Amino acid sequence: MAPDQRAGEPIAHLVLTTTHTRLTSLQGRLAHGRDRHVPAQLIRSTPPDDPSLWLLLDLTGLHPAGADLAEHAYRRAATAVTAAAQLWARTDLTHQRTTAQRPTVLGQALASAVAARPGGEDDLARLLRAHTLPEALRYLLVLLHHAAPARLDFALLARDLYTWQTQDGPRRVGQLWVHAYTTAKARTTSTNNSATPTSS
User: Fold this and answer.
1) Percent of the chain with pLDDT over 70
2) Burial class (CB in 10 A: 0-12, 13-18, 19+), 51
3) Which of 1, 9, 31, 126 has the largest count of CB atoms under 10 Å?
4) Residue with the larger pLDDT of the pair 193 and 112
5) What is the rounded distance in angstroms from the CA atom of residue 147 to the CA atom of residue 140?
6) Within 10 A of 163 (CB to CB), how many other CB atoms are there?
7) What is the mean pLDDT of residues 161-172?
């Protein structure tokens, strides 16, 4: 079995589904006043590769029955889920899966953040030049604080953060983020132009 495959399913997809399951469940419990200690722990300065946070989030979704995940792959996967959860806890963004009718992808969030923040394009450039995961997470947090609307698919972001940690990951993920950003920016510009009344 390849190191990043389990039961025929890429680990990146396990990261996506685990993040979605954990954050959706946590948001539901928080709405009923339960498990408030979890986001309180996530906003601390503990790095996302700390196993205590993996236990806090209960990442059993990364351990499907009968599958064997190599330690280095599990560490990347757990770190990615935890990093996304920390970004969720440190911002006012709600996790919501993206749809064609309601795009909640990172590109949309980056486009709105850059438009709303003086120097936002410089922050985006720094994000794309980041060489370490902590550095990338720092710039992501700055940008996401200015993102609107207040919803983001953190499961897709976690999948990207897993890929970011693999060989040539920063370059590949950076290209995806640039494409998503420019697409969202063009869509926003087109929508704004079409909404502007023309003089007769």
Assistant:
1) 87
2) exposed
3) 126
4) 112
5) 10
6) 22
7) 94
Reading the block at residue 114, the tokens are 């850059």
Q: Please calculate the CA angle 27-150-47 and round it to the nearest 5 degrees.
A: 60
State the sign of the Cα–Cα–Cα–Cα dihedral 73, 76, 81, 82.
positive
Backbone torsions φ then ψ of 152, nearest 5 degrees: -150, 145
| Start-to-end CA span in the chain (Å) | 67
Q: Position 170: which residue type?
A: P
For 22, the 3-state DSSP assignment is: helix
Using CB atoms within 10 Å of the CB of residue 180, give its burial: 0 to 12 exposed, 13 to 18 middle, 19+ buried. buried
Distance CA 144, CA 91 (A): 7
Query: Exposed, middle or buried, 191 (CB in 10 Å: 0-12/13-18/19+)?
Result: exposed
Specify the 3-state DSSP secondary structure of 152: strand
Alpha carbon of residue 181 to chain centroid: 14
- The model's pTM is 0.88
Question: In this structure, is the dihedral angle defined by the CA atoms of residues 179, 180, 181 and 186, taken in order, positive or negative?
Answer: positive
Helices (H) and strands (E) counted in the chain, each on its own, are: 9, 4
Decide: 36 and 30 in contact? Cβ < 8 Å.
yes
pLDDT of residue 64: 72
**Would you state the structure tokens that stand for residue 130, as one six-digit string?**
């980041």
Residue 6 has pLDDT above 60, yes or no: no
